[in-house]
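mind reviewing both lines:
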Amino acid sequence: MDLKVKAMLDPQFMPLAVVWREFEREVSRRPSQRLGIAVERNQGLVESLALDILRDREGDGFNRAFVERLVKSMLWIYGGFRLYIAGSRAMYEHIRAAYAPGGAREFDRGMMCRIYEHPLEVLFVEDAAGLPPVTRSASATGRHLDGCRIGFDAGGSDRKVSAVIDGEAVYSEEVVWHPKLNADPEYHYQGILAAMRAAAARMPRVDAIGVSSAGVYVDNRIMAASLFLKVSKENFERRVKTLYLDVAREIGERIPLEVANDGDVTALAGAMELNDTDVLGVAMGTSEAGGYVDGQGNITGWLNELAFVPVDACKEAMVDEWSGDYGCGVKYFSQDAVIKLAPAAGIGLDASLSPAEKLKAVQDLMEGGDPRAPGIYDTIGAYFGYAIAYYARFYDIKHVLVMGRVTSGESGTLLLRRAREVLEKEFPALAACISLNIPDEAGRRVGQSIAAASLPKLLTPEA
């Protein structure tokens, strides 16, 4: 594949944004047919996409790999428990087999069942015109900063908390922890409770609690989250699912609580800072988190789980240990990406270190001027530029806001510089309308916990 901007340390990188463009060019030269794909989630909410593919039988092999990647992307961006495949019997059979129990996408099937508490179905529709109509229900974002609030941000390597009074942070704290390595839910519970008590002690009272946390949340319940990777299924159901509700009750009865995915809070923080809409937020930390504020300034209710969205079509790309799939965002925009690229940069990392400690070791080399370290962030920047072009197929984007420990210091500056170059050289139309933003250091480290504080509305006196 001839890329105008190379991924310096990853010569086999095949960005899906370019694969899609080449797919369209090839289809335009040969006999084609219309394919429709729709995903339905809770409350009958539907998102769909239509494209031309090669005719069945003539282009089955050519269509198969790309359509499978596209369906997976739609599931993890929009979320859903019901897939509709329209206009191609061959693609329907391929996707149905992939998402059947024991199929290639067994992990994705299981996660959607768990999140939506409904079996995943794959249905065939004769024609794309017969797909269910797009149906959306967006909720207003936070931006509620009146009163005394706790904002908590649960990351995979550190937890951050802020005490916010009438929109001003009067206290912020950041503590290293290791939730993904601990099987005892009490470790998580006590860590979160300690953080919230520390913030509460800095205010005369607590009027509301907002939480930014990696994972999927429904009615403030934890439906799935990598933070609790080691916790048994039994303990997850018994102790973890209502963890934030339980902690909030310890801070005070009837205190409004709102829990949101950390990517959505990243987008919210960006929308508040920029005073604009159509913001895609990406947090690069222990994993990759995504969030989106639409053109009306609302959170969409989509999953936005970019960690599981594929960005690299190379089948030899690194496999994510959790999902068992290749080329997904978690290995490109997180501390895993830094660790993955370190050997190619000639940097050896002590195997006894935790992932967070390995990331810090590379960041120390970067800050110390080691000539090997910049190549890692240059490569991640190339990854990111191409990924933005792929994400733009699903989101209307005016601003991309990037946060997370991976973007600290000069690393983030280098990363975004290379991403901008990708857009300018490969996708000039996107470069002209998308700005890439990175907050200052203070905002980058605690900004999400402050934005999280704005999530809940205060109770009215009569309530």
